[in-house]
Amino acid sequence: MTKDNHRQQFPALANKAYFNYGGQGPLPEPALEAIYEAYKRVQLGGPFSGEVGAWVIQEAMLTRRAIASELTVPPETIALTEDVTVGCNIALWGIDWKAGDHLLISDCEHPGIVASVMELQRRFKIEVSICPLVATLNEGDPVAVIADSLRPNTRLLVISHILWNTGQVLPLAEIVKVCHQTKVKVLVDAAQSVGVLPLNLIESGVDFYAFTGHKWWCGPEGLGGLYVSAEALADLHPVFIGWRGIVTDANAKVLGWKSGSQRYEIATSAYPLYAGLRSAIALQHEWGTIEERYPEICRLSKYLWERLSELPDVECLRKSAPEAGLVSFRLTNGMPHKKLVDLLEKQGIMVRTILNPDCVRACVHYFTTEAEIDKLVGAIAIAKFSFE
């Protein structure tokens, strides 16, 4: 399938140059249709009926299988959630914390996760420290920084696979290996890595991997997941509890948890979204495998990085070509980044600001075009005249 034909299946790309895949990917037409058809089927069958109940179970199973195939893990290790933050909270709050335990988090994590860690610290009197990964963007060894930050009482490391603010790709397997040497578990915010990187979570050894379908997979918002390794399952207790995660007998007596990661699922969800996510994933495979899509993302992000580096009033945070689709840069002419973002949006060009570090972030996907990138760079080049 050609890139032009592929792009025609995304209504949101028809009238804009879109660079916000790291915030939310555009939903393709086949996924929209799949969601609509699923909602219609629920209503025709009766929203609360034996037929639809059986359909929901089947849809959930198919969706776990589709996700598991992308992550190279068994389906039973996947819990279906609403988003990355829910998945991270399941892992954070499911650990049996004791006062004096140590949690290590990087200085590049999303505020939603930072706030959760702060509340854990307040409630359970755990120790929290921050390892400085932002300083390793262009030089230094993130594995060594993390290793030096571990303590004898460290129980959990919280990091992102791809840092959401700078776009740095962390060497996950090496980090997990260092942590597991001292029995430290690893929770990964995978908001920017799922749908971008070829993944084999079994080989990586990671304990918890929280992700969403609405960013780089271009699926519907409101559907994500959490991978829990077989080894980590026994020590992660369900905190958010509902009928989907429990086993009952014929008299509705609660007998225990469902096997595998399904125990972390809670209750009623927007089940028609399942078909939408599977459709979105399948559409990406029509263009190419993840091993084919990822190099195209890197090629296009390098092109954007090179074009931005040519502008006199722009400084890219990375000093070498990006390893993924996130390209962060700052203006050096004094123009506020928010003003630039607003100015670009009026021209149909979508980027976003990042507050820490203070910069602008543009994201390219495998179906981004050089023409879109040229339009973005050209608009930035003349934006200074609006400021002056």
Walkthrough of the structure:
- The protein has 388 residues and is an alpha/beta fold.
- It has 13 helices and 15 strands.
- The strands form four sheets. Strands 2-8-7-6-5-3-4 form a seven-stranded mixed sheet, with helices on both faces. Strands 11-12-15-14 form a four-stranded antiparallel sheet, covered by helices on one side.
- α8 links the parallel β6 and β7.
- α11 packs parallel to α13.
- The chain is globular.
- The mean pLDDT is 97.
Task: Give descriptors for this structure.
single chain, 388 residues, 7-stranded mixed β-sheet
Short précis:
The chain is α/β, with parallel strands linked by helices and 388 residues long. Helices cover 41% and strands 16% of the residues. The strands form 4 sheets. It has a 7-stranded mixed beta sheet, sandwiched between helices. Strands 11-12-15-14 form a 4-stranded antiparallel beta sheet, covered by helices on one side. A two-stranded parallel sheet has the order 1-13.
- Average predicted confidence as pLDDT: 97
- The residue ranges in which pLDDT falls below 50 over 5 or more consecutive positions are none
Report the C-alpha radius of gyration, rounded: 22 Å
Number of helices: 13
Order of helices and strands: HEHHEHEHEHEHEHEEHEEHHEEHEEEH
- Residues in β-strands, percent: 15-25%
Instruction: Give a count of the beta strands, DSSP E runs of length 2 or more.
Output: 15
Helix content: 40-55%
Question: How is the largest sheet built, in terms of strand order?
Answer: 2-8-7-6-5-3-4
Largest sheet entry: 7 strands, mixed
**End-to-end C-alpha gap:** 45 Å
**Structural class assignment:** alpha/beta
Morphology call: globular
